[in-house]
Amino acid sequence: HACRFCRRRYASKEALAKHEKCHGPDGELKVKCSLCNELFSDESQVKEHKKVIHKEEVTCTYCKKTYAGERNLQIHIELRHTKTKTLKKMSYLCGKCGKNFTSKTALLDHERSDCGKSPIYQCDVCKKFYHSAGSLKGHKTLHTKVKPFLCKYCGKSYRNPGQLRVHERTHTGEKPHKCTYCPKAFSHRETLLTHVTMHT
Questions:
Q1: Which helix (H) or strand (E) holds 130?
Q2: Both 165 and 139 in a single domain?
Q3: Which of helix, strand or coil describes residue 187?
Q4: CA 106, CA 55: separation in Å to the nearest integer?
Q5: DSSP assignment of 70-92, as one string?
Q6: Can you give the residue ranges of the C2H2-type domain (predicted)?
Q7: Are residues 103 and 134 in the same domain?
Q8: How confident is the model at residue 37 (pLDDT cuts 50, 70, 90)?
Q9: Which of 69, 81, 142, 193 is 20 to 30 A from 37, comparing alpha carbons?
Q10: Contact between 151 and 168 (Cβ < 8 Å)
């Protein structure tokens, strides 16, 4: 049994009838598989095709690593195999979920924690869990009175560099958080978020 549009042959009339539904009224197939360019009549058929034929895994032609889906592969190629000036830092992509990291250590922690679902670093004082060694280290400062980050303007000390940076804006007048609706800018992100609610 041959298709009247593309001459593909099928063993039964039922299989032929199912195939011919993939063609539009003018004989053109409508939806293309992004992995192999085969044409189908709708997205549900493409989805089923990818599950059965491609098993939703795609392989990088440069390094032979496999990724779950075309989108993750494209991100991987852009980050690992494209030499562009916009990529300032070396990037490490999780092959399972597609999340990007700036260091191999961060990627390994992420993978060991089942894509962030099971934190692997535990505080020996309060038994709370964290996803990275850096997060745990920052947390541990809460259990001590140590505040190693000093303000260069007034000498006040803080537990982490983020707190210090926000504090120093009181001295410099820096307002990096700009409203997209009006010309106002703010030192603190939270203040901006409160302000934006007035516009919406």
A1: strand 129-130
A2: no
A3: coil
A4: 28
A5: HHHHHHHHHHHT---TT--S--E
A6: 1-28, 31-59, 58-86, 92-119, 121-148, 149-176, 177-200
A7: yes
A8: low
A9: 81
A10: yes
* 165 to 8, 122, 161: CA distances (angstroms): 67, 27, 6
Do residues 67 and 73 touch, judged by C-beta distance below 8 A? yes
User: Cα 132–135–136 angle (5° rounding)?
Assistant: 90
One-letter identity of residue 159: R
Q: What is the CATH number of the domain that holds 100?
A: 3.30.160.60
Interacting residues of 117 by C-beta distance below 8 A, sequence separation 6+: none
Report pLDDT digits (tens) over 107-148: 888 888 888 888 889 999 999 998 888 888 888 888 888 888
**Do 165 and 136 have their domain in common?**
no
96 and 140 share one domain = yes
Compute CA distances 144 → 74, 121, 158, 163, whole Å.
45, 18, 12, 16
